[in-house]
Specification:
The complex is a heterodimer of chains A (about 110) and B (about 240). Chain A has about 110 residues and is mainly α. Chain A has four helices and no strands. Chain B has helices at about 35-45, 80-85, 110-115, 140-145, 155-160, 160-165, 170-180, 190-195, 210-215, 220-240, and strands at about 5-15, 20-30, 65-70, 70-75, 90, 100, 105. Classes of the chains: A mainly alpha (about 110), B alpha+beta (about 240). Bound molecules: protoporphyrin IX containing FE, iron/sulfur cluster (2 copies) and FE2/S2 (inorganic) cluster.
Chain lengths: ~110, ~240
C-alpha cells in the first residue's frame, strides 16, 4: 500500500521514473543482443522477429515503448523543472505544448508507417 | 468550545529512544478542535505523564509538528475535521528523527544539518556602516523572499523519503535556508554555501519527489529552492572551470 505521506502526483511520477529506468536497464542489454544477431546469426534473428507477430509479444512491445516514453518525458520534465527557473504556470504551459506536439507528430509518424 | 456526545478513538505513540507502542485513548469530540487540543486533553484529563512539545499554538514557533494518521503536520493548526478517518486518529512523533519521549522528537540532527548546509549568516558590514538599500524587485531578493517564511517545524524533513534513506542528507529545510542565504546580497559567503550544499549529503541527492512542498504548512517549496542550488552549483563549476 502507498503510505499516506506519499499519495501525491509528484511522488508517483518519481516512482514511475525509477521503475521505468530500472526496467530499461534490464531490457536494453537483451535488446542489443537481439540486434547483434543480425550480424552473427541471421536465422535466430528471423525467429525472434516472427515472435513479434504474437499478440502477447505485441502487448509487451507496447509496454516497453510506454516505459521508454514515460522515462524520456519524465526525465525531460525533471531537467526542465530543475534547470529552467520557470514559474509553475509557465511549466504547465510548456509541458502541455510538448505533450500536444508529441501527440501530433506521433500520429504523423504512425500514418507514415 | 461546545462538547458533542461523540468520542474520538485516538492512538498515541508512547515510549522512549529504545522503542515503544501505541496506547489508545477516548477523547470527547469538540467544535473547531485541533490535533494539539486532542493531545493536550489527554495530558490534562487522562494521563499527565504524556510528553509532547508546543509553544505558540498559532503556527509561528514550529515546535508542535507530529505524524497524524501517517502524515507530518503542524498539530496546532490542523483541525481534527480535516484528518479524522472513521472517527480515528493516530498520533506519533515526527518521522526521520530520534525520539526523546512519547511525542517529543529530538530535533538536534535537524538543526545540526542547518549549520552543516552553510545556513549561518556571513555578514559584509559592521554596525558603523549605513543600512544597505535592497530593492524588493531584484530577482535575487524575490528568490529569497519565496523561501524565507520557514518556521523550522521539521514537517518537510519528516516527509522526505531521501532523508529516510540517507542519514547524511541535509534535508529540505536546511537546503532551503542555504538557498535563501545564497540569494541574500548582504551575505558574502556564497562560495562556502555552494561548497557546503555540494558535499556528500547535499542538494544533488534530491530526487524532486516533492513531499516537502506538498506538506510544508507555510506553502514553501524547498524542492524549488533545491533546484536553484543544483543550477547554482552547476553554473559555478562552469565559471571557475574546476
Ligand atoms: C533517453 C533519454 C533519457 C533521459 C532524458 C533520462 C533522464 C533521467 C533523469 C533526469 C534521471 C534522474 C531522475 C532523478 O533525479 O530521480 C534519470 C534516472 C534514471 N535513469 Fe534515465 N534517462 C534517459 C534514458 C535512460 C535509459 C536508456 C536508462 C536505462 C539504462 C535509464 C535508467 C535510469 C535509471 C535506473 C535512473 C534512476 C532512477 C532514479 O534515480 O529514480 N535512463 N533519468
Ligand atoms: S523534493 Fe527533494 S527534499 Fe523535497 S521531499 Fe523530495 S527528495 Fe526530499
Ligand atoms: S520548509 Fe516548511 S515544512 Fe520545512 S521546516 Fe520550514 S516551514 Fe516547516
Ligand atoms: S505550537 Fe507553535 S507552530 Fe504549533
Amino acid at each position: 500500500m502507498i503510505r499516506p505521506h506519499r499519495s501525491h502526483p509528484l511522488w508517483l511520477a518519481f516512482v514511475l521514473h525509477r521503475i521505468s529506468g530500472l526496467a530499461l536497464a534490464l531490457f536494453l542489454p537483451v535488446h542489443f543482443w537481439v540486434l547483434s544477431l543480425m550480424l552473427t546469426d541471421r536465422e535466430r534473428l528471423d525467429g525472434f522477429l516472427l515472435l513479434t507477430e504474437n499478440a502477447v509479444v505485441k502487448l509487451a512491445e507496447f509496454g516497453l515503448v510506454f516505459l521508454l516514453a514515460v522515462h524520456i518525458f519524465g526525465g525531460l520534465r525533471l531537467l526542465a523543472m530543475e534547470f529552467l527557473p520557470w514559474t509553475s504556470r509557465q511549466k504547465t504551459a510548456a509541458a502541455a505544448a510538448v505533450g500536444v506536439s508529441i501527440l501530433v507528430s506521433g500520429t504523423f509518424l504512425f500514418q507514415a508507417i | 468550545m461546545t462538547e458533542t456526545d461523540k468520542n474520538i478513538d485516538v492512538s498515541v505513540w508512547r515510549g522512549g529512544p529504545s522503542g515503544g507502542s501505541f496506547q489508545r485513548f477516548e477523547v470527547p469530540r469538540q467544535d473547531s478542535q485541533t490535533v494539539l487540543d486532542v493531545v493536550a486533553w489527554i495530558q490534562q484529563n487522562d494521563d499527565p505523564t504524556l510528553s509532547y512539545r508546543f509553544a505558540c499554538r498559532v503556527g509561528m514557533c514550529g515546535s508542535c509538528a507530529m505524524m497524524v494518521n501517517g502524515e507530518p503536520r503542524w498539530t496546532c493548526r490542523t483541525h481534527v475535521d480535516k484528518v479524522l478517518k472513521n472517527d480515528r486518529l493516530e498520533i506519533a512523533p515526527l518521522r526521520n528523527l530520534p525520539v526523546i519521549k512519547d511525542l517529543a522528537a529530538d530535533m538536534d540532527p535537524f538543526f545540526d544539518k542547518w549549520r552543516k548546509a552553510g545556513g549561518v549568516f556571513h555578514p559584509t558590514k559592521s554596525r558603523n556602516d549605513p543600512v544597505e538599500e535592497i530593492s524588493p524587485l531584484e530577482e535575487e531578493r524575490q528568490n529569497a523572499n519565496a523561501g524565507i517564511e520557514c518556521i523550522n517545524c521539521g514537517v518537510c524533513f519528516a516527509a522526505c523519503d531521501v532523508v529516510a534513506g540517507n542519514p547524511d542528507y541535509l534535508g529540505p529545510a536546511a537546503l532551503n535556508r542555504a538557498w535563501t542565504l545564497l540569494n541574500d546580497t548582504r551575505d558574502c559567503g556564497s562560495q562556502s554555501i555552494l561548497a557546503a550544499v555540494s558535499q556528500g549529503g547535499g542538494c544533488h541527492n534530491c530526487h524532486s519527489m516533492g513531499n516537502c512542498a506538498h506538506f510544508c504548512p507555510n506553502e514553501l517549496s524547498p524542492m524549488t529552492s533545491i533546484a536553484g542550488l543544483k543550477r547554482a552549483t552547476a553554473l559555478s563549476i562552469l565559471r571557475s572551470g574546476s
